[in-house]
Structures are given as C-alpha cells and as structure tokens.
C-alpha cells in the first residue's frame, strides 16, 4: 500500500443489527456497512462527489467527517450531539471504525463497537514500530479490536521475512518470534489479531463473522512495499 498519504486513510463501518446473521462475511472490510472518514488526503478534492455519503435502508457510509464529532447513528439522529457518544446498547446499529495505512502514525479515533485495522500498521515492520502501534491500538476503548497485517508489516509474515527480510533490513534483521508477541492478546479479550483466520463475534445481540487475510506477497515479492 502506498505510504504517500499525508496522514492516513481511515474508515468507520455501521449497519443495522436487524437480520444480520445471514450477512455474507468474506471480509468485514468489504462489507457494505461502512461509516468512514478520510482526513488530509492530498489526492482528493475536498468537494469531490465520490466522498458523498451512501445511504440505504440498512447501511450508511460516510467517507469524510469530523473525527471529533462523527455523524450520529441512523436511529439516534434526534440525540443532541453535545450529550456525548451513545453506547451500542442504545442503538440498533453496529458501528465499525476502520483504519489502514497508518504507518506508525497515532491519532484520535471515533468511538464505535468495533475497531478494524486492515493493514500497513508500520513502515517496514521494525520491532519498535510494531510495538508502538500495538500499544496505541490496544489502548483504544472499543469493545472489539480486530487487527490484520499489510504488505509493509514485513516481520509479521515469518516465512517471507526469514527468506527476504535482509533486502529491507540490511544492517540488522529482526527477531520475528519476539515481534509476534506484540500482536498477541496477552490477556486482552477485546484484541484480535487475524492471520488467515476467521472468528465470530456477538455484540449487542448481533453476530458478526470476520475473516482476516494479510497481503503477504510470499509468492509475489514485487507486492512488497
């Protein structure tokens, strides 16, 4: 993924809880229930129509909004914004906060039921980079935090890194086993790192199936960085 973003590409995902048990779940990041924001993207005109909201009966997608004051959930539009965030138990909508390409940057995030990071946590997967990003993500208050590695997170792809890591870390390679410990829950039941895995999470009476697949490029080294 490109590292030329001024800050990051971030997204938030919301969908009605009603009737979602049969929702296809090939990838939660591709689900149509997204409420998203993009901040400081130098490649996008602030007035571009492609960032207009998408609204359907059970899906609302916002591509740009004030992170400090995100749009209300569809069934809470009459709740004054200054009353603070409303918990998921008061809403029939589940909100996903989706981010990617953060590349070691940390920033404020909207509240939500799920926090999903879909890749490029770091610049090149150095230990200090993974550790710092995991500390930031684990500190977030979201009830569920789902983390997936990207092509920049070299050391999280053990086999690829052991064979090709010296191409990027020429002076000193990293200990992949030690780095992998940073993405372990370590007793935190809200934290989930998925590597070619799926899981089922029930939140607020709704059940969500999540599959996480990192872009590793093991068979296609040209995908790296």
Describe this structure in words.
The N terminus is likely disordered. The N and C termini lie close together (7 Å). Strands 1, 2, 3, 4, 5, 6, 7 and 8 form an 8-stranded mixed sheet that branches. Strands 9-10 form a two-stranded antiparallel sheet. 35% of the residues are buried. It is elongated, with a radius of gyration of 18 Å. The chain has one domain. The protein has 3 helices and 10 strands; from the N terminus they run ββββββαβααβββ. Helices cover 11% and strands 23% of the residues. It is an alpha/beta fold and 225 residues long.
Key descriptive features of the protein:
8-stranded mixed sheet; alpha/beta; two-stranded antiparallel sheet; 3 helices; disordered N terminus
Structural class, judged by helices and strands? alpha/beta
Tally the helices: 3
- Could you give the order of the helices and strands? EEEEEEHEHHEEE
Residue windows where pLDDT falls under 50 for at least 5 positions? 1-10, 19-44, 82-86
User: Roughly what fraction of the amino acids lie in strands?
Assistant: 15-25%
As a percent range, the share of helical residues equals: 10-25%
Shape from CA axes? elongated
Q: Provide the gyration radius in Å.
A: 18 Å
- For the terminal residues, how far apart are their CA atoms? 7 Å
* Mean pLDDT across residues: 75
Largest sheet: 8 strands, mixed
Tally of distinct domains: 1
Number of strands: 10
Domain Calcineurin-like phosphoesterase: 95-169
Biased composition (Polar residues): 13-28
Pfam family, one: Metallophos
InterPro entries: Calcineurin-like_PHP, Metallo-depent_PP-like, UPF0046_metallophosphoest
């Amino acid at each position: 993924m490109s590292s030329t973003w001024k800050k990051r590409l971030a997204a938030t995902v919301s969908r009605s809880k009603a009737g979602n048990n049969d929702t296809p779940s090939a990838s939660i990041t591709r689900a149509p229930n997204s409420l998203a924001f993009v901040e400081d993207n130098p490649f996008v005109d602030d007035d571009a129509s492609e960032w207009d909201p998408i609204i359907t009966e059970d899906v609302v997608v916002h591509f740009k909004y004030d992170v400090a004051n995100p749009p209300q959930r569809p069934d809470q539009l009459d709740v004054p914004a200054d009353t603070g965030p409303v918990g998921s138990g008061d809403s029939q909508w589940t909100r996903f906060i989706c981010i990617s390409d953060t590349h070691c940057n940390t920033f404020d995030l909207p509240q939500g039921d799920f926090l999903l990071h879909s890749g490029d946590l770091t610049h090149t997967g150095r230990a200090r980079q993974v550790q710092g990003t995991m500390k930031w993500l684990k500190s977030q208050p979201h009830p569920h935090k789902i983390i997936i590695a990207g092509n920049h997170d070299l050391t999280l792809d053990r086999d690829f890194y052991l064979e090709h890591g010296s191409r990027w870390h020429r002076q000193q390679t990293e200990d992949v086993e030690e780095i992998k410990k940073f993405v372990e829950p370590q007793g935190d039941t809200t934290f989930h790192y998925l590597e070619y895995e799926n899981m089922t999470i029930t939140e607020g009476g709704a059940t969500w199936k999540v599959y996480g697949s990192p872009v590793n490029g093991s068979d296609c080294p040209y995908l790296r960085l």
